[in-house]
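Below is how a single chain appears once it has passed through the pipeline. First comes the sequence as given, then the structure the pipeline wrote out for it. We keep one example in the README because the format questions we get most often are answered faster by looking than by reading.
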Amino acid sequence: MSQIIQSARFSCALGAQQSILGIPRVVPIIHAGPGCSARQFQFLGGGAAYQGEGYCGGGQIPSTNSSQSEVVFGGEKKLATLIDSTLDIMDGDLYVVLAGCTAGIVGDDVAQVASDHSTKDKKVIGVDTAGFRGNNYKGHNLVVEGIIEQFVGDVDDEPEVEKGLVNVFSVIPYQNVNWRGDLEEIKRILEGIGLKVNILFGYGSRGASEWKKIPNAELNIVLSPWVGLGAAKLAQRKYETPYLHEPVLPVGLKATSAFLRRVGKELSLDSDRVNAFIKKEEDRYKKYFVSIGDLFSDLAAYLPYDAYVSGDDIYGLGSISFLENELGINVVKFYDTSDPGKLSQKIVNEALENIKEGLSEKTVFEADGAIIKNKIKDEIKERHNKALILGSSWEKGIAAETDSILIYQNNPVVDTVVVNRTYVGYNGGLRLIEDIYSGLFNKGVITNTTHGEDDKI
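Resulting structure:
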């Protein structure tokens, strides 16, 4: 990305402070200018469905608030003082120093300063996340790999591989508004087939102690097209841990069952146990699905059959697979807003073709939300058809203008609160069905046609 964009869906690399907050009892320390940390929280916390401060988040995050003096003389001394104060005041299991643009420009060595203050009881690491290094997807990768390199570290002997233990690298905390519920569902379904899961982020994680066990995993699972893939490759080099790369998040019955079977095969799990769990989940899923069959048949004329997906590829691929292969909704266009590099774009396109031939031709890699909004609006009007839009608050205006159904899946979300919602796995597929078809009523499509003017609900 080298141009100015409007209606952005992501932050700069320093937004990785929110990834740190996604690990229980891990404290970020920001070495950046005044307001940098606050802006990250405002966009990725409050502006992403009001996710809250978390432990040591929001206004509690320590920052050097670098000034002109640090630009001229360097800010390592000021950072050292801040680290000492943070260790005295804030109780954490790991402290992660992040460099912003000011530190990156003047060349402050945050990793070295952090190392100088790290002790046996209070571990401190440093990562260069200057904003000009990329967006917060890049920042997230830098932080995850930095923790593996500096905190998890090398092992003296061969890792003590634990049978059935897996690490999961997947959705990005806070950037993905449903991250907490998504990670809980991913952990639930993997435990259901007999695995022990280091989920690494969220309330299901044990925090820093879980990260320390990364070398002991039998397998790393990357549930993402490219985010987290570098961490899995790093772990393979350091600990010889194999990894399974699943570019498409499993959403709904078909994709989730297929994913679990692939994992089971990769780890040579007891097939009877794997199949028993899948059968139980599928039976439950089908009962719920059939229960709204009369809605589908009675209101078929009002159901959307065109869809536009506007958001990052981590979530977008899973949603597209679900729409196309389980609900029979045609994806007209996918706008990938995560600004992946050329190699990552290739991974995305290959995954799309595996979902359905021709889908890569319907994909536009575009980070400018204003351009996306105009293109979606023009296409809906050209096709003379109401549509389903999976997007963010940026699409609210065009959804209203075209009388389309809007489902929030991507940052920013400013008029909805998300606590533990998920659109991943079996439970996520059912929730997405609920929200899509509830949209018929929320838009007034049904009540306007089934009641008299004076009887609208």
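The radius of gyration is 23 Å.

See the next section for the split statistics.
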